Amino acid sequence: MHNDIKQFLADIRKCVSLAIVGGSDLSKIIEQLAGSENELLSQFDYVFSENGLVGFKGKERYPSKRTQLRLSKTTSAKRGLLNIKELFCSQTERDQFVVYDREHKIREKFVSALEKNFAGYGLCFVIGGQISVDVYPVGWDKTYCLQYVEKDFSSIHFFGDKTMPGGNDHAIFSDPRTIGHTVVDPVDTKLQVELLLRDLNLL
Predict the structure, then answer these.
(1) Which of 129, 169, 174, 187 is the most buried (most CB within 10 A)?
(2) Which residues contact 85 (CB under 8 A, 6 or more apart)?
């Protein structure tokens, strides 16, 4: 996470509570956003990994639900989520796939095929991250984390980029307990949050 975004988050925490929820495990979220677990937990009021199956309020950890199992280099079962992805050797190849996938909709077609072939199994299939598809039981999407925060706040705003149907943000984005906002990148997120806080007279 760039320093200007870190500073922005620190500034707005003076007037609102912040939470992060991701489908990845905690170590991946730390890799993306902070240098250590302690730093990550210091940046947010709530941290939820694996869609909320692992969660923290401050530095206090909620009870975890399941154990982790590594299946292969390209498929891993987290506490409540199966992550399927192509194995890439470099960030450059990942970035190239993002462009290719955007044009050819590889993962979108894959999700459709999974939904067709595994209908009736009580599973959700969604596009996650840059290169993967997530599979989890119905109800174990990102809305799972809302049980920990919904009673503490009169309104919950969610900002995410995979908010379209089939994206791993769609369930929480469209949940009646949240007010959803679609963003494209950290800069856009910062802009939209600033506009919202100004509208609420909090900035």
Answers:
(1) 169
(2) 74, 75, 129, 131, 132, 133
